[in-house]
Structure formats: C-alpha cells, structure tokens
Amino acid sequence: MQDELSPEAYFANVRKEIEGPYGALEGKKALVLGIANNQSIAYGCALAFRAFGAEVAMTYLNEKTKKYTEPLAEALGVRPELYLPCDVTIEGQLEAAFDVIAQHWGKLDIALHSIAFAPRDDLHGRVVDCSREGFLTAMDISCHSFIRMARFAEPLMTDGGVLITMTYYGAERVVEHYNVMGPVKAALEASARYLAAELGPKGIRVHPVSPGPIKTRAASGIGGFDELMEKAAERAPQRALVSIEDVGLATAFLASDYAKLITGDTMYIDGGYHIVG
Ligand code: 0WD
Questions:
Q1: pLDDT above 90: percentage of residues in the chain
Q2: How remote is the CA of residue 9 from the centroid of ligand 1, in Å?
Q3: For FRET with 125, which of 51, 57, 110, 241 sits at 20 to 30 Å CA-CA?
C-alpha cells in the first residue's frame, strides 16, 4: 500500500478498481469452449462466471451434440446468436466463432479453453508406441487450438483480458495411464507461459488451471481413473476430491481483477495433491 494512502483512500481506491465480491466479473464478456454436458469442467466455470456477473457465449462440438448442450446454454443465459458450433479440427470454425463475438460484442474479456482429445489407441498405449497421426491429433486439439484461441482473442481483448486453459498434473509428473496426454499437457503449459510473456504487455493474462481428477466423460477415457481418484482422495493434504464447482470458483477468481497481477503460472486446484503426489 503506497505510504500516502490513508486506509479510507485505499478502500475507496480498491472498491473503484474491483467491483463488489459478487460483481467481480460484472460486465465482462466470456467465451467458453468445452461444455459437453453438465459434468464438464467448462460448465462449472461458466456457472461461476455467470454467478459473478459475466455474460457467457458458448460453443458446441457439432450438430449431434448441439441438442444436448442447448439446455445448458439456456440455463447460462447464452443468447442464441452466441451459441456457436466449434470443432477445432474443422478449418475456420474457431475463427468463425470469434467473428461472431466481434460482431455482437465487439470485445472479449475472458476466453476459456477446456477441451482435449487423443485417439483411443494412442491414449491407451505407451508413449513410446504413440503414432505420429495420434500425437499430431492430440496436440492439435488439446494444445494448438489454445494458441489459435489466443491469436483470435488478442484483437478483441481491447481492455486487456484473460485466457484460461485446463491442464493436468500428468504434465509435470508421470501419472500411470495418462500416457500421451502427459507430453501434450506439458506443451500446453509451456505454450501458456510463452503466450503470457507475449500478451502481458497488452494486459492479457494467461492461466493453465490444473484440477485434480474429476469423473467426466473425457476422464472416462483414461485407464484406471477410479483408482486415480481413490489415490487422490487418500493422499491429497485436504483429503478431498475436487468438483467442477470448485474449479469454477477458482477459475472465476483468476478471471477477475483480484488476480490482476498473476499470469503464466499453472494453478493447481487439487486439494494440494501435487505437493505430495
Ligand atoms: O479429471 C478430469 N476430468 C480433468 C480434466 C483433470 C484435469 C484436467 N482436465 C482437462 C481435460 O484434459 C480437458 O482439457 O479439462 C478439460 C475438460 O475436460 P473434461 O471437462 O474433463 O471433459 P469433457 O466434459 O469431456 O470435455 C472435454 C470436451 C469434449 O467433450 P467430450 O466428452 O465430447 O469428449 O472437449 C471437447 C468436447 O466437447 N472437444 C472438442 N471441442 C472442440 N473441438 C474437440 C474438438 N475437436 N474434441 C473434444
């Protein structure tokens, strides 16, 4: 706190800079990628963004999944014109989503990337056996799509902004059965650091968020996942499993001005598991 600031002046200053605790995201515009169902981590984050006052735009994977996530879009108050198709493997779809954001909002404050994929045979095999095609597919969907998201978000984050992606402890330590997603998430975390360095001068922060294991559809593709969750509950210092609500609240904090001088670092939301893992 600067010397000349009286406590009263400091409180007035902080209140001017950061809207009230429940308005921490008041007026913010957030794009959310990765809501597959109401168990998705992205759904927990979108709920928290809304609770703190943000408006949410949301993508769906394709026409087949659209009808399943439509009720979630309605629950989140997503305007129909901001409920957008986005399979990042289809040329132009991610860009088109950002074009619609530019057209309707003219700006963007928060972009959440909560998608990942690896072909089953590569995900279930040893890294040493991973195919070139499988590796490239996993890297494209789970890592390079975040870099593209940053490229398209940059011109829209005219008042600064926050880019958030979901990673996992398997990026840092070998986690049995995580296999090729380990190096893919390591690339994602390293990419986030470089994006944070490149975009920091524009007031754009970049955060990899690393939740503990959560029973979601994507997670069901990881071998031995139930054992992983049991081990996490037993060994994590807080002896607790993480929920999508827990991830949402912490991610909303990162998206808010309360985290305005934090960027580039992986934030673990895992009951402390990574310090003992
Ligand atoms: O324990 C967990 N569940 C953890 C997940 C722990 C730590 C991190 N994560 C990460 C995942 O690696 C992923 O990056 O969180 C992110 C979200 O995963 P999730 O919420 O666990 O899983 P899910 O609800 O399946 O969302 C992933 C979504 C896909 O859902 P489905 O179930 O259809 O695979 O990623 C999306 C899709 O909606 N997705 C794509 N989106 C656009 N283009 C694509 C694609 N090509 N492929 C998958």
A1: 87
A2: 45
A3: 241
